[in-house]
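Re: the pair you flagged

First of the two:
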Amino acid sequence: MTATAAELCRFIDASPSPFHVCATVAERLRDAGYTEVAEADRWPASGRLFTRRSGSIVAWHAAERPGRGFRIVGAHTDSPNLRVKQHPDRQVAGWSLVALQPYGGVWLNSWLDRDLGISGRLSVRSDSALRDVLVRVDEPILRVPQLAIHLAEDRKALALDPQRHLNAVWAAGEGAGLYYQTTGFLDYVAERAGVAVDDVLGFDLMTHDLAPSRLTGVGEAFVSAPRLDNQASCHAGLTALLAAEPGEQTPVLALFDHEEVGSTSDHGAGSELLLTALERIVAAAGGDRQDFLAALPGSLLASADMAHATHPNYPERHEPGHQIAVNAGPVLKVHPNLRYATDGRTAAAFALACQQAGVTLQRYEHRADLPCGSTIGPMTAARTGIPTVDVGAPQLAMHSAREFMGAADVGAYAAALGAFLAPGGAPAR
């Protein structure tokens, strides 16, 4: 279990942005014999294949008869963070600042007083075309400093204005600081990416915590890392797919960008990306639209997103009859008002997968008097018509710059998803 958790740490440290998540997943798929196919090309009828669109990726191991349906694990590649504004340079009281803004439901205070790097994507002019260049700077160039307690209006509470209080210090004074004060932050990033700043026509840049992921606690019982929500699910889903063999149903991994901001992009879970890929898998094997539509009701999808463990300092914030422990197995998530897509039959299907994997299943319900977050599950179920179950692994500090989970849960989560994808596994309707 410790080895699996250490592998998750390496996965996360290789993937500071959604674009890097896709690059990491693609590299590991290729190493396992998968071939990338472009959306604009014709797809082969069988084999281990994957396709990418921006910060999303879909991979599958084609069955001989894909019209019999699909077993799908869906997760998301993005995490809440602070992102660089289009005009990033600010000068205040002799400081050079980079203007940042929140992405998703970021827990703002957790980003203060941390050494931050920069990662993401530059869209660069290349002759008469455009190309994307991944960039990451793993040096402590940015910091969002906390206000001294002596200057605070209220020492008992912290109120952060996302417009005024989240800009990062990155230069001041003489030398290199003075040079970049007269050029700009984008000049620095372009230089580090090895491209001319005048060729950078667009960018998607974000901050990341530079402290490496690591195993912590007595006996290395825990994982302390950024972006566990939801890279732990991406890693578990990838591990499950790489172990899967096709039976009559095709195992599929679908990792989407933009879940943290609603999924309504051309490659989010609200797009046609997954549905189109599934139809093309059927068509490549010689099926028609009737075959594709007939395959959907017999398919099954696990929406894999992290779950709330019961916080030992705030147990009253949790539903008392559904206490969730770390290192105690994956979590089935249920909500009567469909914040999660689980129903009784899909719950039973995942429970059976956990039994087949030999792991304990925990069941989560949210407090009835608190608003509940959601996942790609309900949206994907409605969009595809595929029966869906919402599952996850327990963690603390969700949406913090640094999160916390049990090391043993890493392997158990992957094993449960592996059984879910396996031939003869959990039944569909």
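Second of the two:
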Amino acid sequence: MHRFFVSEQSFRQNLVIIEDKDLIAQIAYVLRGRKGDLVVFLDNKGFEYESELISFSKNKISAKILNKKENLNEEKQEIVLYQAITKSLDKFELILQKCTELGVKAFVPVITERCQRDFLPKKERLEKIIKEAAEQSERGIVPELLEELNFESALKSAAENGGGVVCYERKLKIELKELKIRNKKINIFIGPEGGFSDKEIELVKSFGDKFRFMSLGKRILRTETAAIVAVVRILF
């Protein structure tokens, strides 16, 4: 069954009322939905609603809720990915898509010394990519895309929320089992093309035991590969 995240206002007693023009077009024209088709609507609070499409008009689609159940696909370990903004927007989109599929809870774009961008354009498009990846991977929530932060501010934010791990080439491996037990939320920092600068590494060290360095192996990985590998290592 096709799955769609919808707003809280869409749920009205035992019905789901769709008035979003883009979603109407997707269901009615792209997917060629018809009366009697079954779909799943999600409330972004961890519940999903199996529903039957019962009426179509130009400005509204109505569906009858048949069954409500809790979505159990969310990871107990919360991952917040502090990802340096990539030179290519395509790479950043890939990171958002794949890490959403893997279970990341939120994304924080980070501006570092070696970033070639200091902002993310097309935020609406990026949020759409995250939403579609969450639907495709049968998640119960849509991860948040938070505002950009410079590297120091990002470290301060993470330090106030339990610290985290900084992926840095050729560092010793850390004991992930211990890290998981100690922290329900883990903040992961991934550098840009070219990695973190020496100055940034010293800044990380200035936070003491709030942050630990994590090696992703002997080889030097692309930033988009590093993000995926880091999330997989921690969650799986």
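The helical segments are 21-30, 89-102, 123-136, 151-159, 176-182, 198-205, 223-235.

-B.
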